[in-house]
């Protein structure tokens, strides 16, 4: 364990990389970031677990207080022994897991990182701007704003989308509905749509407890955005939103009863008379 930086306020970060160059590049960015209070380093997964379970007074005190030993773990993926993805799965099983930010030389593992529950995904070499963006996201996870019916950042999730060699992160809370397209799913937001290689059934299973419902073999919708459930001679449909951005989607007969039940139980109220 190496403590390389402590400025008295901010996040406690663990940086894990088996290569000196990769670790040095990351440390260069972290040491200059005022969101970071303390930096710990590890050179492989076993070393990282030793750090997290060490007798370090501050880390032990945080654990006793019901916090994660560190706020953020930056993880290289390609490491000998237990790789970064496998270590990430171990860390997410902690009673209070840290935010995970993967740092890798490859840009084709973002979906796997998403499935592990990553907060962000950086391609080497990291730059100060992207590191700060990742830390800002992690900082929000550590200090969620709570309130009745509010989805906090800690409850939110990000979906990495590849766009011309760039990984864009789409917050789940910004998604209005998801459309099945074969083995892919198209995520629809107010600003546009994004195609990801993940089956709609997997997203349904993952998101059913956080306010999404299957309404049709082709659609999964955010219940909080349903403004009307309408019935016509051709069957039921839902209206998402209001005004110019509103959209109407079909509801299949087999999903109608469950959808009605979910809408009644949902914190969202004020559905239109078509209900």
From TrEMBL:
Pfam family, one: Response_reg
One example GO MF annotation: phosphorelay response regulator activity
Record-linked InterPro entries: CheY-like_superfamily, LytR-like, LytTR_DNA-bd_dom, Sig_transdc_resp-reg_receiver
Superkingdom field: Bacteria
PROSITE patterns the record matches: HTH_LYTTR, RESPONSE_REGULATORY
SUPFAM superfamilies: CheY-like (SSF52172)
Protein name as it appears in the record: Sensory transduction protein LytR
Annotated source species: Actinoalloteichus hoggarensis
Top-level taxonomy: Bacteria, Bacillati, Actinomycetota, Actinomycetes, Pseudonocardiales
């Amino acid at each position: 364990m190496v403590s390389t930086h402590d400025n008295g306020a901010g996040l406690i970060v663990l940086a894990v990389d088996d290569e000196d160059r990769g670790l040095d590049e990351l440390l260069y960015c972290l040491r200059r970031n005022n969101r970071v209070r303390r930096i710990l380093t590890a050179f492989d997964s076993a070393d990282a677990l030793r750090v997290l379970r060490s007798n370090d007074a501050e880390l032990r005190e945080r654990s006793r207080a019901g916090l994660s030993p560190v706020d953020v773990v930056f993880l290289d993926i390609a490491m000998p022994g237990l790789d970064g993805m496998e270590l990430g799965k171990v860390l997410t099983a902690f009673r209070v897991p840290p935010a995970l930010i993967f740092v890798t030389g490859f840009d084709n593992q973002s979906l796997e990182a998403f499935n592990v529950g990553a907060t962000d995904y950086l391609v080497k070499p990291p730059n100060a701007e992207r590191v700060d963006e990742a830390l800002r996201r992690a900082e929000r996870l550590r200090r969620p704003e709570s309130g009745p019916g509010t989805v906090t950042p800690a409850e939110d999730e990000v979906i990495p989308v590849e766009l011309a060699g760039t990984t864009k992160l789409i917050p789940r809370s910004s998604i209005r509905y998801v459309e099945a397209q074969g083995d892919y799913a198209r995520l629809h937001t107010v600003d546009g749509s994004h195609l990801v290689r993940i089956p709609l059934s997997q997203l349904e299973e993952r998101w059913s407890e956080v306010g999404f419902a299957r309404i049709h073999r082709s659609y999964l919708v955010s219940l909080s955005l349903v403004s009307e459930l309408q019935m016509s001679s051709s069957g039921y449909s839902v209206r998402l939103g209001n005004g110019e951005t509103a959209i109407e989607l079909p509801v299949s007969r087999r999903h109608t009863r469950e959808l009605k039940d979910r809408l009644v139980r949902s914190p969202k109220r004020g559905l239109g008379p078509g209900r």
